[in-house]
Amino acid sequence: MTWKQNGIRHDTKNNRVRLSKGANHKEHPRAWEYILVEYETRPGVEVENLQQVRAVYDQAKERWELHLVCKDEIETPDAPGNETAGIDLGISNFAAVAYSTEDADLYPGNRLKQDGYYFPKEIAKCDDSGGDRATRLHHKWSERRTHFFHSLAKHIVERCVEKGVGRINVGDLAGVRENENGESKNWGKHGNLDLHGWAFDGFTSILEYKAKVAGIEVVEVSERDTSKTCCVCGKEDDSQRVERGLYVCEECDAAFNADVNGAENIRLDINDESNSESAPSLGGDRSTGWLAQPGVYLHDLSRGFQPRTEVVDCKP
Predict the structure, then answer these.
(1) Which of 208, 231, 211, 200 is nearest to 165 (CA)?
(2) 229: Cα separation from own chain's centroid
(3) pLDDT tens digit string along 115-154?
């Protein structure tokens, strides 16, 4: 349950918060009824600019907790550098990141897909879809997804800081679930589960504020033709993506990871006519090996994202 500002009265002198019960929970809609909460803070911590109050059930401790959400202004640091990174968001690989330093990372979405299959099945087994067990499963599913997004955004921002990135280009996926007529796309039974459970917009919001704290700008750019255009020579052809994870260019004979190719085109922002780098070309003696063999990071519930060789996967 969430209380917004119009339902909150904050007494900063006595460390108390008064929460309105709401018309639906009062004996009479106009009755003067509220919940009075007293709180204690650590030394040196003050609760100011209170924006929201959330009631959250802690399953491990079997108790309800109130989370106070405050607005705090921080000084944005200077950008770590002038380089640009590109992020291609997907389903099989939730994110592919290309850097201008001849380096790329892949973040598989296996854990999200596993949860996307596991939790709906378990919820469907519940006798009452609104019962306690179903509610706990929904809550756990949401927590795991949010934890994945925060861990991923944090890891990408840390990698960008290491590489002197001052700007992150992210593919704009607005309208990805609808066709030209505004109707929902049909990708089959499993494809629809993946597509409609794909919370790319929630992840982008998390990435934006984490990047801002590090002084990095996040810009949404057009994804048009980025998956079918060769980032080496600029050849555009749907048939060049011969398999889900393989892109082979018939023009320049380059072969590399398809998602990294999309991320590099997003980094170059090939649809921006004013961009001097808009025509894909690695040029010079720049190698293409990094396009074929990106680093792969898997999500560990306790340690966040780790190189693939260091992670032991576990079931929900």
Answers:
(1) 211
(2) 25
(3) 888 988 998 888 776 678 888 888 888 889 899 999 999 9
Q: Contact 227/258 with Cβ under 8 angstroms? A: yes
pLDDT in tens, 169-214: 998 876 444 445 555 555 455 444 444 445 677 889 999 999 999 9
Structure confidence at residue 312 (pLDDT): 44
How many C-beta atoms lie closer than 10 Å to residue 71's C-beta?
Answer: 9
The closest of 315, 290, 292, 295 to 156, measured between CA atoms, is 295
| Contact call for residues 70 and 50 (beta carbons, < 8 A) | yes
> Which residue is associated with the tokens 């030394």?
43
Note the pLDDT of residue 240.
Answer: 63
- With vertex at residue 203, the alpha carbon angle to CA 81 and CA 76, rounded to the nearest 5 degrees, is 35
Percentages helix, strand, coil for the chain, rounded to the nearest 5? 30, 30, 40
Which residues pair with residue 257 across a beta bridge? 246
The more confident residue out of 189 and 60 is: 60
Phi-psi region of 131 (alpha: psi -120 to 50; beta: other; left: phi over 0): beta
85 within 8 A of 277, measured Cβ to Cβ: no
CATH class of 83-310: alpha beta
d(CA 142, CA 23): 28
Strands, E assignment, 59-102:
63-70, 83-89, 93-99
Q: Which CA distances in Å does 66 have to 39, 55, 58, 125, 311?
A: 10, 5, 10, 31, 34
β-bridge partners, 229: 236
Domain locations along the chain: 2-70, 83-310
User: Which two three-digit tokens encode residue 268?
Assistant: 């170059």
Cα separation, 88 vs 262, whole angstroms: 6
Tokens encoding 14: 């006595």
List CB contacts of 3: < 8 A, sequence separation 6 or more: 19, 20, 52, 53, 54
Distant-in-sequence contacts of 27-31, Cβ < 8 A, 24+ apart: none
Among 250, 233, 232, smallest CA distance to 241 is for 250
